[in-house]
Amino acid sequence: MPARDHKKRSTSNLKRTTSNFESKAIVANPHRHLTIELNCLMIDLHCHILHGFDDGPEIFAESVQMAQAFARSGYQIIAATPHMIPGTAWMPSTDRIKKEVSGLNQTIENAGLELEIVFGMEIAMDPQITDLLDDERLLPLGNSSFLLIEPPFQQLPPNWEQIIFSILAKGYSILIAHPERCGQLADNPGLIDELIKTGVFLQVSWGSFFGQYGRAAARLARIMATKGQIHCLATDSHHLGGHNPSMMHTAGLKLRKLIGLENVRKLTTDNPQRVLNGKPPQPMTLSAAMTARKRRWWRWW
Ligand SMILES: [Fe+2]
Predict the structure, then answer these.
(1) 3-299 has which CATH code?
(2) Ligand 1 centroid – CA 91 distance (Å)
(3) I want to staple 208 with a disulfide (CB 3.0 to 4.6 A). Which of 22, 74, 214, 221 is the partner?
C-alpha cells in the first residue's frame, strides 16, 4: 500500500481566493490575469524545483527564486518531482528529497511566501518500478497514493500495460507525465484512449500548448484538450528561464477560449487538489460549442 507516514503540512487549508492573493505581491505581476479569472490559486504537480538532483536548478538560491516566481504567478502548492530513472545516476533517495523539501519550505515560510512544496518524484516508466515500490524507494505526490510516471519520449515499453497494471495492483494510482511528448503517442493519438482505459490519469504540460516541445507535442496536446483527455496541467519547470511559470498564462488565456474557464480551473486547481487528497481527477466537461471551435484552434500554430 502507499506510504503515508511522511510528514507533510495539510493542504486542505491552502486554497485561497483572489482577494487574498491580490493583496500580496502578485498584484505587481503582469501575468496575473488568468489566476484572477480563475478566482483561485493553482497547484503544480510536476516541477523540478529542488536543486542538485537532476537537470533542475544547480543551487539552492535558484530554487528559492523559482518558488518566488511561482508564488507571484498564482500558485499555492508545488510538487517537487526530481527525476527517478532506474539504472541511472538519477535515483534520488526518498530521505534526501524529504530533507530538501523541508529546508525549502522553511526558507519559503521565513520569506513570507504563501506557497507550500510537497514531495514527489517523476518516475520513468520501467519494469523495475514494482520492485522499487517494495523497497520503499519511490515517493508518491505528497501524501497521496498517486505516482507521477513518465513515459519515454520515443516508444512506450513493449510491456507498458503490464507495468501499469502491476503498479495499480499495489494500490497506487498513476498520473502520466506529459504523454503528448511521447512520439509514439503523438503519431497514434488513438493510443491515448488505450492509456485511459487502463485506469491512468493524464498530465499535459503547459509548454506543449505553445510549441515548446515541437509541433507533434503541440498537436497532440490540442487533440487531447478537444477530446477532454487531460486531467491536470503542470509546468514541468526546470529553471526560471525557458520554463518559468508565468509562461502558462499566455497559453491559459487561449486554452480558456477553447475549453472554457471551468475546465481550466479543473485542470489547474480542482483536479490537482483531488490528486493530493488521493481522489481521482474529474473528467473535463466539453460543450458542443467548445468542440465546434476546434477548427479555429488549429490556426494558433
Ligand atoms: Fe519533468
Answers:
(1) 3.20.20.140
(2) 14
(3) 221
